Amino acid sequence: MEDFIIQTPVASIIFLTTIMVSLLTFSNTTLYGKLMLHPYSVSRGNKLYTIITSGFIHRDWMHLFMNMLSYYFFAFQLERILVMASNWGHIQFGMLYLVSLILSDMGSIIRHKDHFWYHSLGASGAVCAVVFSYILFYPLASMLILPIPIPIPAVLYGILFLAYCMYATKSANDNINHEAHFLGALAGMLITIILYPHIISHFITQLTSGL
User: Fold this and answer.
1) Tens of pLDDT, residues 162-200
2) What domains appear along the chain, each with residue ranges and CATH number?
3) pLDDT attached to residue 200
4) Full-prediction pTM beyond 0.90?
5) CA pair distance 40, 210, nearest whole angstrom
6) In degrees, to the nearest 5, what angle opens at C-alpha 161 toward C-alphas 158 and 165?
């Protein structure tokens, strides 16, 4: 466990902090309310901190489990990849996660700036950023997307995921912030490309060699 934390300290801190804060708010409704993103307030210059804190709390056990499961499978691998690519890899991972978390909320803040009743929470946007950053490095890695029972290439998973998010943002009525998922995924790719411009040629090479 100690070696695990030493190799991926930033991913480990985010992982443990998210779990602990989420568990704490499950039994503290006052804190839960204070940490949720409230676009109406944020758009008026209030509770700006919730753009960050809302990414460390979750609606319930299942919401937390699903986000942290995806995070577990990709975040620790991504931090190792970034560390191998740069001496600043740990910092870059933290920056990618937090900046993507902020950017993934922008759509909700703009769309719901006049909706006092609207709140949002969860790490989904930032987790999507991590997953899609990983896809740029390994576009042909095997990934599962429910309900398809067999693994598919990561690049195909990415295309299907983004297409569904675009559809669900306009059509779904399931209380899931699909827009944050979509923007988080785009943010993760954009930040990765800014940090590693050569990732585009690497991505294309991986695809062409695999095909």
Assistant:
1) 999 998 888 767 678 889 999 999 999 999 999 999 999
2) 2-210 (1.20.1540.10)
3) 95
4) yes
5) 47
6) 140
CA dist 164 to 86, 103, 159, 167, 172, Å? 34, 19, 9, 5, 10
- CB contact at 8 A, 143 and 163: no
Instruction: Note the pLDDT tens digit of each residue in 14-69.
Output: 999 999 999 999 999 999 999 999 999 999 999 999 999 999 999 999 999 999 99
Q: Which residues are within 8 A (CB) of 68 and not within 5 positions of it... i.e. 6 or more apart?
A: 15, 18, 19, 123
Neighbours of 90 (CB within 10 A): 17
**Rounded CA gap, 14 and 53, in Å?**
12
* Neighbour count for residue 136 (Cβ, 10 Å): 22
